[in-house]
Fold this protein.
Amino acid sequence: MADHSAHSPAAAASAHKAGAHGHGHGHHDVAKEVRKYLLVFGALIIGTILTVAVSYIELHPHWKNIAIGLVIALVKGGLVAAFFMHLIDEKKLVYGVLGATVFFFVGLMYITLWSMEPGSFIRLKQPAAAERTATQK
Amino acid sequence: MDIPYTTHPREDTGLYNAKVGIWLFLASEVMLFGALFSAYILLRVGAAPGTWPMHLLNVPLGTINTLVLIISSVTVVMAWASLKMNRFDRFKIYQTVTVLCALIFLVIKSFEYYDKFTHYQVTLADGTVLDGHVVTKDTNSITLHHVKEIKPQSATNTVAAPVAAGAAATAEQGGHAADGHADDHSHGERKIMFSELAKHESGRLKMSNFGPWHNTYMAIYFTLTGLHALHVIGGALVIAYLLGPGTKMWFSDPERFTNRIEVSGLFWHFVDLVWIFLFPVLYLL
């Protein structure tokens, strides 16, 4: 992390070894982290107000409202995960586990949507016209 | 034998074991909620156009609850940071606030649930739909107040009903504060005899509150928020334990105790994260 640049590399390395919780922040580093937590807190409050405010503006078509709402939620969720859950500075194993989770989560959403709109997400061989009208029904 | 790697990181993972454990658990939780989000998408995209209820819930209450959870998430991480800085006194203050926030969240959620269980929609024999909050209900009549009347539409059927219900509820929920702008029927009570009501083919009366059985939206709303509320209760119990009897570990093994706080915090942040998505999806969009 950038925080360590203030210390000598050796001090940073030994701090890492001593850190039993896998982060190795000294008191000084934790104090720095606290400032970040408060900034994230502010951002989350603003995000919440923003998402409520935007929802009162009805956009046409409505999917624009949905897209904006989800983007704000993703940013807020990302902030919580990155800073409160320390994912911005975590060990490889955790990234591995979460990478697999993201893959399966996205896959699940993908097949959900695909099941409702066959052909719109994965282009299969175009069915013949007669067959198409039959399946649309 | 001592439990290994409660404080020292394991060589191969670089993590203390509880952290690996909580992340694996959270991964499974993501899929649990993911399955229900998938159900939500199926129900919403699959609903007939214009029938998905919008703005049926109380947005101000939902917003307050969102802020309450965000505050609790900050206090959890601050509690952990306090232990890192050897400030046990501050840790206790922060976690007390966390538990209070959890309780506030659950109380507000209970009010929202109660409101839905006392909110009725009945269909009269002529097709008129009435929507209001129950005052009394006995064996042959129901009395509603703040009644909205939804005129029968050319094709009054089960598909059209939820739209009307959604629209009526908007005026009503949006809020209790703005009762004034509702139509002339909105004030006063109205007693409805069950003999006046339309019936389903099965003979059941066309009368239901906004419980999970009302429509698919209410069903997924109660499923998602109910499961989330169970997580809030579970997380609050763990945090409360670590604030109460669990604190004795701080004096015997402070590092391990700090790790417990971090792990319980990770769970709590996850609960907050889920709500960050539930709030817009169910209340706003």
In short: Chain A touches chain B through 48 residues (CB under 8 Å).
